[in-house]
Queue: 2 jobs
Job 1
Amino acid sequence: MHLFLLGASHHSAPVDLRERIDFSRRGVAEALDRLNRIPTITEAAVLSTCNRSEIYTVCDNPDQVKRDLATFMSSFHDVPEPDVKPHLYGRTDADVARHLFRVVAGLDSLVVGEPQIAGQVKDAYQLALERGYTGALLNRLFHSSFGVGKRVRTDTGLGEGAVSVSYAAISLARKIFGDLAELRSLVVGAGEMAELTATHLKAQNVGHIGVANRTPAHATTLATKVNGTAVPWELVTEELASTDIVVTATGASKWILTRHHVVKAMQPRRNRPLFIIDIGIPRDVEPSAADVEQVFLYNIDDLQTIVQDNLAQRQSQVDLAELMVHDEVSSFMTWLRSRGAIPTIVALRESFESTRKQELDRLAPKLESLPVATRMKIEEITHLLIEKLLSAPTEQLKAARDEKELAADANSLERLFRLDASTSQPKSQDATDAVKRIKNRESKSSRVKHR
Amino acid sequence: MNIIPLGLYFIAAVAYAIHFGTRSPTSGRIATVLLVFGALAHTFVIGMQTMQVGHIPLVGTTGAVSAFVWLLALAYLYTEMTTDERAMGIFIVPLMVLLQVIPAITNTVASRPPVLESRWFEIHVSSLLVAYASFALACVISVTYVLLFKELKGKHLGVFYARLPSLQVLDVMNRHAVTFGLVFLTVGLAVGAVWLFEVQPVAADPRVQAMSLLDPKIFIVLLCWLVYAFGLYARRHIGWTGRRAAWLSVMGFAILMLNFLPVGYFVTRSHNFY
């Protein structure tokens, strides 16, 4: 059993190819159904975001599956294989875990530490789980990845600080005013930047959004889009008195707001803070307005500086996050190896069980005279004895440090207890039950761990 | 015995500093727990002293300082629990440590002269101490306001930007603390005045006779009352919110501390009961 991943992301593929192999175009569900029909794959999940298309699988032969998945990518998206193949990356076992953990932690994102990816991975896993395409391996892999994501987000500053200009502006507004729901904002201009910021204000539930533009029709259009009201151009300076957040984004060559306008507006405001975001180029607000008490004026350069600082700050946390990923990959791999011990454990258990049965059968004539309750007790005690005897070797086998150690331990056990290699697969009902019990115990402990 | 709460406050101050530096939630919780233990130990010490001398140890500046620190710990813990903000601990707890050094060194409880054996005395002093604790909190909130304001205005977002609540929240907290403090200051002063009218004609104690508006301690506390009252008035009617209100709050508390310690110990002729 191996983990195998095939995918393409912003690191490996240009945007036009990423668009062509985006699973959301035809639906991830359909892709999963199609993948299910590939006989070499036993488990599958598909992660599709605007920057990456990845297929996570469990299989026996990664080389074969690599070819199968490349063909699938090509046929499913209707892109010639030679176009897509050079941009695909394949990962196996520990590298799959490392890749997914880095993705969820935001380490592999275009903007390091961006928070949406964790939710997108959760959705991808949920869909595969609901359709029954995941099993023990992928379940464990994805659950572990959510744990890593959470750890990185809470214990490092990787996701902290605004890394886009509009988000930086909103964060500043929150630091000045706290709750934005009661505030009045005014967007001056109706161009692309103005629209982007107005949409952001709306998304952050700012109480009221006014829009002013030299062309009233443009103001009305944008105001309708963001559930705001259009403000006549001549009233902009008057409107200042009742506004808390002003965004100016016009292409005007002269100041739209001068220091004088701002000073005048502050009197009726009783000095309530006024936050002015000037993202116009050239600037729309006279810079000396920033000196007025209780006025906070930020222009596009100021905001960009904040964004750059935050990006640098995030970068400084990358090493710490990588270390966490490294730790989690090792513990995931320990778990994965412990699964390799199952055939030996089953064989050992079966051998002990058959000895117990044989001995009880042999003693049956002698025990016949005993009451039923006592015979049941003997049955129970012998059973418990075996469980006790096997518990330590089972734990030790599962805790093997690497494949070599596991193989050596398994060999010794097979030799010492004369376990037949062929008995290494569950045959009898008892042995199958034993496997189920082991797996149940594992999945329970993994659930507890991730709760 | 005052050394035990002092030690706990000191460790709590270190924990708050670590929390401020690392911003780890665990260190914050540890700091709060340490402070709670400090306050409990302090409660125990004050309780023991009360049992020892038969009255609440509020006589004299030393006893008052200890009670003030205790009230400040309670007031801060209350604020922390209602707002879930721990960033101010790094300012307030060291202040408590500094002040607690006085009772820890002195370590004696002043005996109560007969003239102070009155219910009025207890109400007078405890009201004023509650007011002081509230003003201390307002001062610390204001200092943080000014620091955050400076970062926002100067566009150099740094440690305070990342750790403090919004300016608006700090401004509202300052207003609440000042209003609360002013109510208790007024009650304390009024009770003191009424009581003075009662005892001055009959008491022979020279300190009681020295009580007048011209005594430095009384004069300065009235000045404080004016500063805080003006602050609230200006906030409402002239629009002195934010930074100006914060500076007034800091100024008020600075005068108050001056009155509480140097004036209380060395200058006053009326309030020297130590």
Job 2
Amino acid sequence: MSGALTACHECDLLQREAALPQGGIVHCARCGAELFRSHPHSLERSLALTVSAVVLFVIANSFPIVGLQLDGQVIQTTLFNTVRTLWHEEMKLVAALVFVTTIAMPALQLFAVAYLLLPLRFGRVPARFALVFRILQTVRPWGMVEVFMLGVLVSLVKLAHLAGVVAGIALWSFAALMLVMAGLGAVFDARGLWARAAALR
Amino acid sequence: MNRPAAAAVTGASLGLLNCHVCGQLSRAAAGAHEAHVAHAARCPRCASALHLRKPDSISRTWALLVAAMILYVPANMLPMMKTSSLFGTQSDTIMSGVIYFWTSGSWYLALIIFFASIMVPMLKMLALVLLLVTVQKGSRWQREQRARLYRLVEFVGRWSMLDIYVVAVIVALVQLKALATIEPGPGAIAFGAVVVLTMFAAMTFDPRLIWDAREKNDG
């Protein structure tokens, strides 16, 4: 029992940090909240997932998500086009909400993770490390790629009776992005990040 | 999970502040037991503002929650989408969308939308009311279950955005004047506001308050 003291972020119980086996998860003894987990090669894995997420994100935003086929005509829409249509339909608030949760926040999240991890991987602590970390923690709950994915699927079924539905490249990229970002959320180890930064300073 | 000893030592009781952003534990300045002093403290590691408990957690959460409850009414009564076609104009609320899916045979989609758009916001608001009331009463009832309930509320809230995305994609795709035009309805704005407000309400609620009653009652 010689670990550092830590307070549970959900119930404030003070407890000593237990030595953790690789891949282990520590829960609060009183309220059961997850305190931290250890992942083997968390930094490298997070970085790999971030790079693939960035590529997928670019593809998902550059190509049409879905198309409608009608009388030999195909109408397609990209994610940004969806936002623009809502904006012109006098739904500026809803347009902003969609833009923020599906484009701005995921982009900011990926940028922040890359900004923090890439220099750390090569043994440098990036400038404004703490600020970017704080931005990352604020942004995280507002990226809703996985909810958007389900929304697209529901609207596909809804439209299927109107016309032929064509899945676009971006639909598959979004599906992959959703999985990669979920993986990133699971592998990303904030505690290890600070430990690494502290060791380098 | 092993039970802690009867006297639980919290960070607050020793004047230790836990940074909610980076998890660093730091000693509060002398006299920081008063909330307004601790308010000005900054985390030595990441420079986030530190509080023993989130400031005005209960009143802020109530304010956001009441606003969300009021908007929940127009969100469900006003149309999310207006469809105009050769056969006339049709307004769809969330519930009529659910019924449409149910009757057209896609019962699984009806269930998903019913759950994400109607049940989740409602249960989330009821759960927050329960948490707020029990905390205000200083209740020691079912603390572990309530902590779990809070975690669930935080996790599940985002899925209510589903209907907003459905409207967005459909409106963008169906711009074919010959077939039909679909416009988003005012219900979409109210609904989006409900989702955002309840997410903020869950964020401003401080789950540590659930456990604070114990210290007071024991002491």
